[in-house]
Amino acid sequence: MGKYYIGLDGGSTYLKAALIGNNQVIDTMVRNTGIDNDGTARKLVNELCVNNGITPSDIGYIMATGYSRKVLEVADDDISEITAHAYGVRLTAPKDYRPGMIIDIGGQDSKIIYLDSKYAVKNFSMNDKCAAGTGKFMEVIAQILETTIDNVGPLSLEATNPCDINSTCVVFAQSEVISLVARKYDRRDILAGMHISMARRIVKMMKKSEKDGDILMTGGGSLNIGLHKAFEEELMRDVYVAEYPQFNGAIGAALIASERG
């Protein structure tokens, strides 16, 4: 039985992989999912082995999670995203983090996971697929405003008068943004308004009875400093960002794999 374990998080756009050993993250990788999910996953497993000087026989177990987990035949088993994310924070959360809530901003959905003091899942909420509170929505708005996803956060921090963006549907929200551009609003104010709108929409998903403990952001959206700030201002409290935020689900799956293997 090998001493290394791999977690695969098959998202709708990206496939993430994490390699752990001795209860520590050794390596992470991400690739476009493409049309052959399992083929992409197999390439990631091979690259993780090659890059870290190990062989497939050193891998004790592979666990899949995420949107395409059922078709990743290279994995030994699969687990739900909710469970994987809850496990992941055991390695990605700040040292003194007291579990309470995970806000995960993914490419196609956003979810809130409520934890007990032992990182077990108590409850969860997930947004509507059409809701304008996802990573893909931010990418689309970045294109409309002729910037990159990496610049969206920093630009929004320069806003002086954030715009109001009220639509809950991606299509209507895009139309709102296009209208604001046509009316010559500063794109920094539009981006700030977008972040505020996203934060408010996701905060409304929160269950009032489940707001104890520290809050941790995961997913690609947590890398957006403007969105992070919007959450802190909306909640009026600190919101922590996980280490390896994009890979939290994959890391959680790898941790579960270490228990199975």
Distance between the termini: 7 Å
Give the mean pLDDT. 89
- H/E topology pattern: EEEHEEHEEEHHHHEHEH
- Strand tally is 10
Structural class: alpha/beta
Biggest sheet strand line-up: 3-2-1-4-5
Specify the biggest β-sheet.
5 strands, mixed
- Please state the overall shape, judged from the principal axes of the Cα atoms: globular
Helix content: 25-40%
Low-confidence stretches: none
Name the descriptors.
single chain; 261 residues; alpha/beta; five-stranded mixed sheet; 21% strand; globular
Describe the structure.
The strands form 2 sheets. This protein has a 5-stranded mixed beta sheet, sandwiched between helices. The protein is an alpha/beta fold and 261 residues long. It is built from 8 helices and 10 strands. α2 packs across α8, α4 packs across α6 and α6 crosses α7. A hairpin with a 4-residue loop joins β6 and β7.
Question: What is this structure, in a nutshell?
Answer:
With 261 residues, this protein is of the alpha/beta class. The protein contains 8 helices and 10 strands.
